[in-house]
Structures are given as structure tokens and as C-alpha cells.
């Protein structure tokens, strides 16, 4: 098992969008902050409306958004560079007090 690392020990490399005007800096986690309510239900709805569409029962990214942000050229590791998460298997829990339903033999 991997040891759990305290998030406050992380350092972040912040790269500017306009590299010719600003330089890259490394900051501690305590130096970072975010505005509250930056992410909300309304903003999520707007994002989905602008960049996604239903297709055969699945929500997919619109072709215009894929082209605009060059998403076809990126892969999963570009967005998530760390090791993939490992999930512990846990069997489905049964409802308390009720025996599992039995299938009819006439089927």
C-alpha cells in the first residue's frame, strides 16, 4: 500500500498563460486559495449545455468543443498525470431484514 501524503506538503508549479509576460513559480499549498462558489450547479448546467450533447443515451462532448480545445490530440494522462487510482472491491450490500429475492423457476 502507498503511504498517505499530507496535501499541505505538496508544492505546485504554476505556469502563466502568457509566458512572455510572467515567469513560472513554485508555491506551497498554503499559498493557494480559491474563491468560494467558483463551481456551482448553475455553472455545471451551463457547461454541459454549451459543450455536451446526448447521443444514443450517452452524454458526449460536442464536435465543436473537441476542435476548439484540441481534445482529440490529448490523452487521459495529459489531464491526470499521476498513477491511476486503485479502488478496493466491496461486495454489494444486502438490505437488512429482507432475504434476497428468488428467481421464479417458470422463467
TrEMBL record:
In alphabetical order, the GO MF annotations are: DNA binding
Q: Name one GO biological process term.
A: regulation of DNA-templated transcription
What InterPro entries does the annotation carry?
Answer: BAZ1A
Q: Name one GO cellular component term.
A: CHRAC
In Swiss-Prot or TrEMBL terms, this protein is called: BAZ1A protein
What organism is recorded for this protein? Atlantisia rogersi (Inaccessible Island rail)
Amino acid at each position: 500500500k502507498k503511504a498517505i501524503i499530507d496535501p499541505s506538503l505538496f508544492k505546485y508549479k504554476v505556469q502563466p498563460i502568457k509566458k512572455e509576460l510572467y515567469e513560472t513559480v513554485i508555491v506551497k499549498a498554503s499559498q493557494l486559495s480559491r474563491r468560494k462558489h467558483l463551481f456551482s450547479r448553475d455553472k455545471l448546467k451551463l457547461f454541459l449545455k454549451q459543450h455536451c450533447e446526448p447521443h444514443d443515451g450517452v452524454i458526449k462532448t460536442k464536435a465543436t468543443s473537441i476542435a476548439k480545445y484540441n481534445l482529440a490530440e490529448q490523452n487521459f494522462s495529459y489531464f491526470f498525470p499521476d498513477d491511476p487510482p486503485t479502488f478496493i472491491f466491496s461486495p454489494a450490500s444486502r438490505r437488512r431484514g429482507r432475504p434476497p429475492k428468488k428467481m421464479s423457476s417458470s422463467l
